[in-house]
Design brief:
The protein is mainly beta. About 0% of the residues lie in helices and about 40% in strands. It has a four-stranded mixed beta sheet, with no helix packed on it. It has a three-stranded antiparallel beta sheet with strand order 3-4-5, with no helix packed on it.
């Protein structure tokens, strides 16, 4: 990499690895560990080395790095995990699936459209920012609406 005519610098090498361990699955062996590097999944089915790992069902339409056997709630291309070089870290995104649910240990900033799931309860987050008469104050109201489960439709 050329640096403004001054010196040549070696490209940055990222050594941050992500490991996923299967804890519960109907079809995949419990304890299987997936190793994800900044280039992608080790022993990937797709073998693209592009920093993106796709998870989903076997499909002629999509090439996934890790395959799940057909079961309810898993789609052809369900989610991706991507390494971002600009903000060195791994990021997960739901693609065409029914959702990706993450156990959180710390506070998470709630945003419109986020679904909070626990047990058989699924709550949709809507944030309504109401400006008060005093311009220095702003009140945020967070509303939860059950979209699935035994309390469907209640707020």
């Amino acid at each position: 990499v050329h640096n403004g005519g001054r010196t040549n610098e070696a490209p940055i090498t990222y050594r941050k690895y992500l490991y996923l361990t299967i804890k519960e699955s109907k079809h995949n062996p419990i304890g299987t560990q997936l190793e994800i590097t900044p280039l992608g999944l080790t022993n990937s089915k797709r073998n693209a080395n592009d920093g993106v790992v796709y998870f989903g069902l076997h499909s002629l339409d999509f090439k996934n790095d890790f395959l799940f056997k057909a079961e309810e709630g898993v789609n052809k291309q369900h989610l991706e995990i991507k390494f971002d070089k600009e903000r060195p870290g791994y990021y997960v995104k739901n693609l065409n699936g029914s959702g990706v649910f993450i156990k959180i240990q710390d506070y998470l900033n709630l945003k419109n459209g986020v679904i909070i799931s626990f047990g058989t309860n699924h709550l949709l987050v809507t944030i309504d920012n109401n400006d008060s008469l005093d311009q220095r104050e702003s009140i945020s109201v967070i509303k939860f609406k059950a979209i699935y489960g035994p309390n469907k439709g209640s707020e």
